[in-house]
Amino acid sequence: MKTLFKNARLIDPEAETDALGWLLVEGGTILAIGTGQPPAADNVIDCARKCLAPGIVDIGVKVCEPGERHKESFGSAGAAAAAGGVTTMVTRPDTQPAIDTPEVLEFVTRRAREASPVRIKPMAALTKGREGREMVEIGFLQDAGAVAFTDGDQVVENNKVLSRAMTYARSLGALVIAHPQDPGLSAGASATSGKFASLRGLPAVSPMAERMALDRDLALVEMTGVKYHADQITTARALPALERAKGNGRDVTAGVSIHHLTLNELDVGDYRTFFKVKPPLRAETDRVALVEAVASGLIDVICSMHTPQDEESKRLPYEEAAAGAVALETLLPAALRLVHADAIALPRLWRALSLNPARRLGLDTGRLATGAPADLVLFDPDAPFVLDRFTLRSKSLNTPFDGARMQGRVLGTWVAGKHIFEGG
Fold it and tell me: Is the predicted pLDDT of residue 424 greater than 80, yes or no?
């Protein structure tokens, strides 16, 4: 059966165009795209001049299976992703136990297939137990479906262990994803050092901790030649090192979380723990520099860094509260703040949300092109609403955007041409 999306604002991140047209889907793939008179189809969807774009590919989603299913399951995360226009979740291995063997990875893959309406691409740990002592069986895990290898925010401190893992990953063409934060400097920190942290009496970490760790990682990348992705760049001081590495031809990319693009350290206010994330929120000058880096293409990927935490772990003194925020449903409207502020155009934004992450992982999604999978999101970029966290589909409701005025509602989400979510 052919499905026609007509009268749509087509957001094409590959061509970087934003134009009125139509899109024809058949058998789970995009059959044709054009302007002018649309062809006949069995099913016609009038998009009413709303935006039709590739579904979001979100790197770094934490689904708490196995081990902490009460925080988030594949079912609840999949429902939240569909409602947020996310059609591919790239999941983290920082579970209990860590995803560090083919058996655990196969369990996760099976659970995802059974419960989630969106695509799941799992990452595996880089070292056993994420303990930084012994690398995992990268080849076996790659064969079992791991798309990348990372210890998440548990930084591998031993340079010899990390260099060996990178060398082995390089021989297999595997992608290593790292969290550039010096673990010694950042241990116990819950804010960025500066006047605000001092006034609030919060344990803080210097932005230099990120630059130092990134410099270390990039030196090892130069030594090993591995494919490398920094999961979150959050400070202006780290950007020159990233720019040099790219200019020198290293196979390096970088991401940033939506919270570091749209919030700053002052949002913590009077110790509001829903704003406690890792790394901590930065200065406004850092936030502005990151937005400019995304607009220029220096930072490649925008991600949700979806990290569910239950109420008990957040209702604690700020320095003791767990770090992290849910963001699968808020990623799109929060990212549209950058568009409404004229900081970035929609097609360039969608390069960072969809095209670039798909390319980095070798996926064929993230494009509006003939033959590409029909993973699509239809959204109204201007629809205003006030976010109520109790309407979110995640099991955990720890969002910093609770009560915030936002713009941008998902009207529909499709995976392989199948309609998996319809919004109001």
Answer: no
